[in-house]
Write a structure and sequence with these properties.
CATH topology of the largest domain: Rossmann fold
Distance between the termini: 47 Å
Order of helices and strands: HHEHEEHHEHEEEHEEEHEHEEHEEH
CATH architecture of the largest domain: 3-Layer(aba) Sandwich
CATH class of the largest domain: Alpha Beta
Largest sheet: 9 strands, mixed
Shape: globular
Oligomer: single chain
CATH superfamily of the largest domain: P-loop containing nucleotide triphosphate hydrolases
Structural class: alpha/beta
Length: about 325
């Protein structure tokens, strides 16, 4: 894959030019954008692949849902449907996508919906019987037809956007300079012991505007794994060998975590948003338990109903979380 990208290096300047011109036309109001009165918070990134958007959406749901009526609006990547859909008890990952399904299964006090056109999605949300008072938009940084009320941009600690290149040579959907559209930038998946010296070096690399707020976050793995709504202590679960099944943009973080805990496991790795089929598991040892991510859990239990499948929940810890929470709450209150 890396060699293939190097061969396509000559296309990188063209892609760069197209994205720059597109952004200039939006900045000059040549292209129409829409802004809504209802608070809209967008969580996005510059790079393709995972930077931790779903855990950040869940962090905001936990922060806001006791005070506000919340809706999440996603594209619904990988779904077989089109247009605007509100999730219900019959929804599957094929209907709404795996991440929106995760939100729906986890929270019973929010509205979960999908629409490729975010403006159309918000218009539909505002017409329902009890419209939301805050809308969280997942993966919408490049959706410039919508002017967000508050834009949160994520970048992975191990692959900062300042160290990357635009497609196809690199992983960026648009140039690193586009980060200056964000109100808040969060460096995700940081080591827990990151010090101020390292933080300042990253801050200088990112070259943010003075008005932009910078935060650092880390992943916290649960002390329990969950099977069929029943919790098992993680330390007890890992006493036996198991199979790790992941369909992520990068599995490095969870693999490193399990390795550091001296787990004995086999790893079946698939592409992000993989649509599992029985054939994927023909050569998997049927006597071993399966550990997976919360996102993949709902898909796996459908095709392997007789297997013991556990998932390991994660949460986000934000450094200076009180300041971050205040910024979010102040925006919603105003």
């Amino acid at each position: 894959m890396k060699l293939f990208r190097k061969l396509l290096f000559f296309l990188t300047p063209l892609y760069y030019l197209i994205t720059v011109v597109r952004n200039i036309l939006y900045d000059l109001s040549f292209y129409k954008t829409t802004k809504f009165q209802v608070p809209t918070i967008g969580i996005g990134n510059l790079a393709v692949g995972g930077t931790g958007k779903s855990p950040m959406v869940e962090y905001l749901i936990d922060l806001l849902s006791n005070k506000y009526s919340i809706a999440t609006l996603s594209r619904g990547y990988g779904r077989n449907t089109k247009s605007f859909i509100i999730a219900n008890e019959k929804s599957t990952h094929s209907d709404i996508g795996d991440e929106p399904l995760q939100f729906y299964n986890k929270y019973n006090n929010i509205i979960v919906c999908v629409d490729n056109n975010r403006v159309n999605g918000i218009n539909n949300l505002l017409q329902i019987n009890k419209p939301p008072s805050v809308i969280l938009l997942d993966d919408c940084f490049q959706h410039r037809k919508l002017t967000l009320g508050l834009s949160i941009l994520l970048t992975d600690y191990s692959n900062l956007f300042s160290n990357d290149y635009v497609l196809p040579f690199g992983n960026l959907r648009e140039p690193a300079s586009s980060s200056r559209r964000a109100d808040i930038v969060i460096v995700t998946k940081c080591p827990k012991n990151i010090d101020e010296i390292r933080k300042n070096k990253i801050k200088n690399k990112l070259n943010l505007k003075l008005s932009q707020k910078l935060f650092f976050s880390s992943i916290e793995y649960s002390k329990s794994v969950i099977f069929n709504n029943t919790k098992t202590q993680f330390n007890n679960f890992i006493k036996d060998k198991f199979i790790l099944v992941t369909g992520l943009a990068s599995s490095d973080h969870i693999v490193d975590y399990l390795a550091n805990n001296k787990c004995d496991f086999e790893h079946k790795e698939f592409n992000d948003h993989h649509d599992y089929i029985l054939k994927d598991f023909e050569k998997v040892n049927p006597s071993l338990n399966i550990l997976t991510t919360e996102k993949d859990y709902a898909k796996l239990i459908k095709i392997l109903p007789k297997r013991k499948i556990y998932y390991l929940p994660i949460t986000v810890n934000i450094d200076s979380n009180k300041l971050f929470d205040k910024l979010i709450l102040d925006y919603c209150n105003n």
